[in-house]
Amino acid sequence: MRKKTLLSFALVVGVLALATPLVVAYRLAQQDGHDEANAYLESLALDVLRRSDATRAQIDMAVLLLRSGPPLLPCSEEQLARMRVVVARSSYLVGFGYLDGTRLMCSTMATFEAPVELGPPHRINPPHIWSWGGVALPGVPGALFNINAHDEYAAIIAPQLVIDILDQNSTLSLSQVGGHPPRMLRTRGVFKREWLAHYDGKPAEFTDAEHFVVVRPSHNGQNEVFAAMTRDQVEGLIRSAAWRRMPIGLLVGVLLAALVFLIARNRLSFKTELQAALKRHEFFLLYQPVIDLRHGRCTGAEALIRWHRSDGVVVPPMVFIPAAEKSGMIQKITASVLQMVARDAAQLLRDNPQTHIAINFSAEDLHSPQTESRLQALVRECGAASHNIIIEATESGLMSPEKARGILARIRQQGFRVAIDDFGTGNSSLSYLATYDLDFLKIDKSFVDDLGNDPSSTQMAFHIIQIARSLGLQMIAEGVETERQRDILRDAGVQFAQGYVFGKPMPMADLAEFIRQRNGPAVDKP
Ligand SMILES: Nc1nc2c(ncn2[C@@H]2O[C@H](COP(=O)(O)O[C@H]3[C@@H](O)[C@H](n4cnc5c(=O)[nH]c(N)nc54)O[C@@H]3COP(=O)(O)O)[C@@H](O)[C@H]2O)c(=O)[nH]1
């Protein structure tokens, strides 16, 4: 990836890394604020319903007590005294009275000069309980009462008592509605009749242009409480939740953005480091001998790159080659490998014209138009022939078949030989492999390791050998560490092998000596 692209990519990912936790934190804060509003309004609504139930229970109990004593003369001092005792014992009843039909004859609250005509009841529920709302009583000016009558006994209730659970300054709204059609039983704050349309007998929450409303029905379904707060109040709760959530979101965002920054810097600096290493010629090659298993001669070697850093550490290719591939540096490194082979191997190839040097190519090398000219320059510079060079391409390098196939075909036409490396570790199939012009198939070390020990690895290795045979490819087994592995491979018809049993990767001078010893008249067969 080019520096500019990497920077833009890192910037976009960094901004996303910073913004995403903030957005998530805000969304959670919105949810928290909403949940808080919901929970608070629900608790208020349930409280009103609980008080309403308690009021009803107190009325029932009061009527029971009034009826339990010996019958008294209606509106007599004795009856009013009994009513006063009952009222004193209850917390939600403010008075009691005696009814004759719809006329309130007397009450504990005030003495009437004449009976108070209440008119037709506002609600009858169940049949023997009649209710009136908003009743003005003589002797108690400026107050309106609800009256709840059980036959002749009328409980007098201050409607606000049930609903006055908010402090005076509260701007929340609470309304209890009951009956069919619905009538307002008691209210405080705002109530809009259109809210009734949102309620279908089940608990509900909804928002209109100005309010967030929670509705909770009583357990007997006879009335329901609407608790509401303004949308500004909900926003206030969201804001306080955001104050709690956002710092965590910000912290996570900053950490993620810092991580992105560090990774990008690492990538960029690694690329810079590779560039500097190339300039300072810190890369060098070791050569691992390849042995012909039939007669034990060394037929060539694989060039394996190492990075001798200025701090003295020798970095193996597994560490920097993948990073070089990702940072777009691999072609420069391969070009340097070709130059080093040209320099290192010139003498060896002149002295041993039948030997080869195998060079690893990455996917990008196989897709580059410069590869052919670089290979031509290599053989020209070291005075070798193209058959002295084997290109090792990994399965992943062949993954863009259109580009790779063309280059490989042209390279082979010019006499260079091609091996597929690490075969079996990717997803290549036999039919896929058959579409390429190849000379060698390298059997990956992972299949060689357990040869003769693990039946499935052994079977896999034999299967790969079968594939190579069916495609007419010669085989090079890699990672051969024991004589047993060597013998099994040789007996299975594998022609070539490399591995520690023959020789570890070594400098060119050592390789020349190795070949002299191995291929000279005194050479031991494997
Ligand atoms: N694109 C390029 N890739 C390269 C280049 N040089 C090396 N590589 C690739 O790096 C991978 C690791 O290579 P390396 O650490 O050099 O390991 C090689 C051998 O040292 C190791 N090997 C060989 N025999 C044995 C053995 O008997 N035991 C054992 N434990 N290890 C052994 O195997 C590696 C050779 O692998 P391969 O190339 O698949 O034959 C590796 O994938 C290299 O390809 C480069 O210049 N360019």
From TrEMBL:
Gene3D superfamilies: EAL domain (3.20.20.450). Signal peptide: none annotated. This is cyclic-guanylate-specific phosphodiesterase. GO terms for cellular component: plasma membrane. It comes from Pseudomonas kuykendallii. It catalyses: 3',3'-c-di-GMP + H2O = 5'-phosphoguanylyl(3'->5')guanosine + H(+). The chain crosses the membrane at residues 246-264. Keywords: c-di-GMP, Cell membrane, Hydrolase, Membrane, Transmembrane, Transmembrane helix.
